[in-house]
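Supplementary notes for students who missed Thursday's class. We covered one full example, reproduced here. Read the sequence, then the structure, then the short commentary at the end.
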Amino acid sequence: MLKNILKKSGWTDVIVSILFILFGIMLIARPNEVISMISVLLGLVFVTLGISKIAEYFSNNKQERYLLPVATILILLGIVIMFCTNLIFSIFRIILAVWIIYTGLMNLYELCVWKEYTSRLWLLSLLFTVLMLILGVYILINTGAIMQTIGIILIVYGIVNIIQNFIFIKKIDDYL
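Structure (token representation):
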């Protein structure tokens, strides 16, 4: 039972890593278009949420007074997001860096847990985890990182994470 859960989790991580690789390729090929698209889509989500809150406000006979200010804030935030691509890029860069660092720290924790099960692949996994942490910190502290660099880092992150998950899936029987 635990073996199946762990294998499914490993395969889910592989799929997420493939998505990161594809996104990295798009960032390299068309960085401005990708960021503009993200800004517009995210802005439209907020505007749509705002409009739904206005509809909810009027359908409840204006009883829930907090809905109108919330709707106004959501709509204004959506408009700002659509027209402030640089802001979106900064937020995206920080979220991405935090995600990569978090994943690296979780992998480091797993490596500490699995260290007692000696394996030749442990050192390789440790190397990949350290590389992942370095990439995450680079994205976080380098505010001038161009989109292509982030695309390359996403591709490397995806490949490293896929390799680590294949190692984990292959060795899960030994660990259990």
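Commentary. The first helix runs from residue 2 to 29. The CA atoms of residues 90 and 143 lie 8 Å apart. If anything here is unclear, bring it to office hours.
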